[in-house]
Amino acid sequence: MDRLTSPRTIKYIMEKYGFRFSKSLGQNFIIDSNVLDRIIDGSELSETDHILEIGPGIGVMTQVLCENCEKVVAVEIDSALIPVLEETVGAFENLKVIHNDVLKLDLKALFESEFRAKKPKLIANLPYYVTTPIIMKFLEERVPVSDLIVMIQKEVADRMMAVPSTKAYGALSVAVQYFTEPSIVTTVSRGSFMPMPNVDSSVIRLKVRANPPVILESEAIFFKTIKDAFGKRRKTLLNALSSGILGMNKDQVRTALAASGLSENLRGEALDIDQFATLSNEIFKVMKTN
Ligand SMILES: C[S@@+](CC[C@H](N)C(=O)[O-])C[C@H]1O[C@@H](n2cnc3c(N)ncnc32)[C@H](O)[C@@H]1O
């Protein structure tokens, strides 16, 4: 079957269905076949894979997923695209299209009915403003996916990959690296989409960890520590941690920092994930004894 990446196909669909791109739904469709190949390679797709695709659009990626994998469930919000998908990929017997907003979907029910047999890979090319919340929802709620392969703004992918003491390093880097092992599959220039967006993109693969990389007394305190530490980036750890959601006073923070072997004058951006784990475990102890 010919790929759907040609601009001619999109124009044909626009004419036949009176389809108009919706900016608010982030409708920028892939028109570069090489990008699809790079995503397939980087996702290490196999014929036994099950896939949850979010935002299939006209089915460019869906088609390739159906050809390469055992089962594909695709969730599309735009009712105008449902008859289009019926024409472009409706013939695949291993595909189920669900017309819904992924943010409103009962994920638990979906996973029970569709993915009982096997953890799927999540593949998504979504509007950028919903992508990070969706990634974090899947990770924090521990929705049972093995990998998340998502197209995101290049700058956000860089933040997810960032190491300590760099400008891009922040709460998002630590959270993503706590739940997953991230890697960049490919960068994608804006010219690979129709219509052309005004930012470049990266496809990032987040391999969900079977076990966390650090041992924590309390995951909630770990995340609060990170939030406070990066909330006021220019502040030292002493000041940032004693004026945030942890609700600690300066003496308590001093005790926890000293027990962690960390200087009061460091900033959050200097700490790696192991140091954040040690610090949050000491904060947990301080809180328990007060
Ligand atoms: C950037 S386009 C990608 C389309 C296609 N996957 C591609 O790469 O060419 C984003 C798609 O996500 C859909 N979408 C946007 N918000 C959504 C949501 N909340 N739930 C499900 N689909 C959504 C849009 O209608 C659109 O089809």
Describe the structure.
With 290 residues, the chain is α/β, with parallel strands linked by helices. It has 2 domains: 7-208, Rossmann fold; 219-288, Orthogonal Bundle (Helicase, Ruva Protein, domain 3), CATH 1.10.8. Helix content is 42%, strand content 17%. It contains 12 helices and 9 strands. The protein has helices at residues 7-17, 33-43, 60-68, 82-89, 107-114, 128-140, 154-161, 171-179, 219-231, 237-241, 250-260, 273-289, and strands spanning 29-30, 50-54, 71-76, 95-99, 121-125, 147-153, 180-188, 193-194, 201-208. Helix 9 (219-231) packs across helix 12 (273-289) and helix 11 packs across helix 12 (273-289). The protein is elongated. The structure holds S-adenosylmethionine (SAM). S-adenosylmethionine binds next to strand 1, helix 3 and strand 3. Keywords: Cytoplasm, Methyltransferase, RNA-binding, rRNA processing, S-adenosyl-L-methionine, Transferase. Belongs to the class I-like SAM-binding methyltransferase superfamily. rRNA adenine N(6)-methyltransferase family. RsmA subfamily. It is found in: Cytoplasm.
The total domain count is 2
Radius of gyration: 22 Å
Range of helix content: 40-55%
Total helix count?
A: 12
Structural shape: elongated
Average predicted local confidence, pLDDT: 94
For the biggest β-sheet, the strand order reads 4-3-2-5-6-9-7
Query: The CATH topology of the largest domain is what?
Result: Rossmann fold
